[in-house]
């Protein structure tokens, strides 16, 4: 029979794991939808400026 401390440990670790996964997924979507488009537009702008100088 599991003890109360053992059950509390499993619940706490499950909660921490779920929060960790949530953070990882949020980071993925932030990078994909916020930072990556900004990086791509910055690179396009930089390339067009280079072409104008040449």
Written account of the structure:
InterPro entries: DUF8005. The chain crosses the membrane at residues 6-29. Keywords: Membrane, Transmembrane, Transmembrane helix. 0% of the residues are buried. The chain is built from one helix and no strands. It has one helix at 4-53. With 54 residues, the chain is an all-alpha fold.
What's the quick description here?
The protein is mainly alpha-helical. It has one helix at 4-53.
Task: Walk me through the topology.
Elements: H1 4-53
Which labels suit this protein?
single chain, 54 residues, mainly alpha, 1 helix, 93% helix
Q: What percentage of amino acids are in beta strands?
A: under 5%
Annotation, overall tally of beta strands: 0
The CA-CA distance between the termini, in Å, is 77 Å
Query: Helix/strand/pairing class, anyone?
Result: mainly alpha
Separate helix tally:
1
- Largest β sheet strand count, sense and barrel closure: none
- Overall 3D shape: rod-shaped
Radius of gyration: 23 Å
């Amino acid at each position: 029979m599991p003890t109360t401390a053992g059950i509390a440990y499993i619940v706490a670790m499950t909660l921490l794991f779920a929060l960790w996964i949530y953070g990882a997924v949020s980071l993925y979507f932030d990078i994909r939808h916020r930072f990556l488009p900004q990086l791509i537009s910055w690179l396009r702008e930089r390339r067009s400026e280079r072409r104008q100088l040449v």
